[in-house]
């Protein structure tokens, strides 16, 4: 569903069914969730799935809006001042952030010899430093509450590497060290920090690729298909739930077997 598309009756029925199921589950606790970059693609699907489960959901975006039922705050993860303002709005309207999904990211793909310093630092500043900024801000209230779920959206590229993506792979690999260090620092406070590493996902970006390039990618994937955004979202909502409270510092691949545990 595009950000400016009104939900259909079918999507409303689906969300009502998901919310009813979640609320009837004995261990369900509605939480305040923040998804960065929740205005499109995987971030949109993640936010929508949390809403469907009955949580209070905020998304950050540089433009556009999140799914219906979410609170959209305009913020840039590279700008600490805008993040401070965003957290203030979220806390005032929804309460302190209890579940953080650091999803915002950019690419500036080109071969190493052609990559400028700006190409490299811009991707690191958004994908890795941006995650640090939101984790640091969210962790303050999590420590007070002695509860928190931090989920960092990485990529199979961060584990395997990829020609033409030195900057992107480095940024996504760095999220693993971030999550594991946070786990060692904050694990005793009831806070978990995990990484989800999607492979190729059906988004506008992959749909725009030439057919031959899509076929070449598919040959590398044992499942012989791309993931849907919902498949990634449901792994993330599971990690955020009470049943995953003893999982921390883990890297969960959602890649159809492409990474094979790397």
From TrEMBL:
Domain Ketoreductase stretches: 31-204
Record field: transmembrane: 147-166
Top-level lineage group: Bacteria
Gene Ontology MF term list: oxidoreductase activity
Keywords associated with the record: Membrane, Oxidoreductase, Transmembrane, Transmembrane helix
The UniProt record lists the keyword Magnesium: no
Pfam family, one: adh_short_C2
Record bears the keyword Iron-sulfur: no
Family indicated by similarity: Belongs to the short-chain dehydrogenases/reductases (SDR) family.
Name by which UniProt lists this protein: 3-oxoacyl-[acyl-carrier-protein] reductase
Organism: Salinibacterium xinjiangense
């Amino acid at each position: 569903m595009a950000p400016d598309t009104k939900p259909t009756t079918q999507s409303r029925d689906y969300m009502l069914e998901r919310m009813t199921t979640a609320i009837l589950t004995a261990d369900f606790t509605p939480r305040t969730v923040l998804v960065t970059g929740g205005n499109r693609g995987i971030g949109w699907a993640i936010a929508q799935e949390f809403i469907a489960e009955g949580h209070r959901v905020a998304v950050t975006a540089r433009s556009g809006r999140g799914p219906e039922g979410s609170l959209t705050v305009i913020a840039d993860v590279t700008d600490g001042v805008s993040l401070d303002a965003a957290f203030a709005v979220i806390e005032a309207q929804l309460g302190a952030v209890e579940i953080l999904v650091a999803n915002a990211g950019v690419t500036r793909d080109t071969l190493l010899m052609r990559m400028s310093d700006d190409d490299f630092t811009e991707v690191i500043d958004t994908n890795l430093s941006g995650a640090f900024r939101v984790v640091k801000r969210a962790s303050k209230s999590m420590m007070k509450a002695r509860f928190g779920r931090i989920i960092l959206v990485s990529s199979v590229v961060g584990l395997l590497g990829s020609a033409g993506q030195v900057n992107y792979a480095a940024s996504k690999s760095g999220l693993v060290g971030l999550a594991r260090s946070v786990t060692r620092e904050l694990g005793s406070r009831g806070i978990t920090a995990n990484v989800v590493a999607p492979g190729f996902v059906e988004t506008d970006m992959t749909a725009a690729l030439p057919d031959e390039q899509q076929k070449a990618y598919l040959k590398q994937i044992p499942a012989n298909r791309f993931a849907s955004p919902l498949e990634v979202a449901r792994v993330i909502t599971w990690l955020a739930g009470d049943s995953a409270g003893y999982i921390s510092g883990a890297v969960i691949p959602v890649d159809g077997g492409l990474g094979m545990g790397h």
